[in-house]
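Final report, closing paragraph on structural work. Over the funding period we assembled a curated collection of sequence-structure pairs, and we close with a single example.
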Amino acid sequence: MSSCKQLLDALHAGVHDQSLASLYALDGTQDSLTRARARACHVVQAFIDSFSPSENAPATLFSGPGRTEIGGNHTDHQRGHVLCGSVDMDMLACAVPNGAGVIRVQSEGYPPLTVSLDELEVKPEEANTSTALVRGVAAKVKELGYPLTGFDAYITSTVLSGSGLSSSAAYEVLIGNILNHFCCGDHLDAVQIAKIGQYAENIYFGKPCGLMDQMGSSVGGAVAIDFADPASPVVEKAGYDFSQSGHSLCIVDTCSSHGDLTNDYADITFEMGSVAAYFGKTVLREVPEQDFRAALPSLRVGCGDRAVLRALHFYDDDRRAVQEAQALKAGDFPYFLSLVNASGLSSALHLQNTWSTASPKQQAIPLVLAQGAELLEGTGAIRVHGGGFAGTVQAFVPDEKLKAFKAGMETLLGPGKCHVLHIRPQGGCVVAE
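Its predicted structure, as stored:
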């Protein structure tokens, strides 16, 4: 490994340009590579300024990417199928072992945090904090039998807050990769690191999330996941190069808030669960679809029409997620786009997660979907992104329409609200050392 100064000099000299290009210059432009190099140099220099490392301290650059949900909207909590992917917005860290028995993290723009490796028990007062995630990841790595060593890290992030790109999973995967490299000899694979991140978020952070976010960040590329056994999900890469599709991935910020939507999200899980409970099951994956459809008249009475519609969405979108992965494997991008559009329509009409009945005047997502569809003129695909009710919209836009689409979205919502992303082939990783 190089010292901080040696790493910084190598980055300036372009020694690590190939690694940087594979993560951050997926559009193939020199401008993107230049920005990526400058950002990497900034992180190393900021580490030096923040921690004043010894002259020979070995430094390493790590990345934890954000993730985008591609297929399977609200199917994971019913043990269904999803399709997700890591993106080129990430958390980038320069880290150095400190031999001090503590983890010290300075995230750009936030107060520093310190976690003692002698105090890895759950601390309720840390719920919903980054400190809890660091402590939880470290605790799980220790539980797996690896001797821990402390480190210092400086982190900068391009993962959009509230965008559905899952900044918490990116953070967990980043910390997991640092510990894997410094403490585990890189023996942990991407799936193990994802599970460690989920453990930290569930037990230490206090959020009962599924595993999709961490898998999408950790594994890399487009990833098909079957959650039939949530303890051992089946993970398979779709193996498609999105840069060859002739389309750009856009995430559009609708400028609507996720605040006060807890009940809306809980209602989806509760209502799908009520349909499963009608058959004596816990989740819809356990109920054969033919049994569900045969019981529709009784389910309407026992569970209500919205619950039935949401269950109908689960069965259809669960199947679509599998078909989307198959379409990508076969290189059939037009069929893939048709499935994305069908998923979006089902989310709007059956799942009903594009706006909240608690705030009927706030319907930013339906408005953006309508305007986006007009700009696409029957091409590409557009749908609600992630949990829904507020937040973001996802669109696959033909490259020749990208300029007009971006301009149209930002005329409606304001500058900087349409973000062009790329599905990157690598998940959490060592970038340079």
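The chain has two domains: 2-238+428-432, 247-421. The chain is about 45% helix and 20% strand. We thank the funder for supporting this effort.
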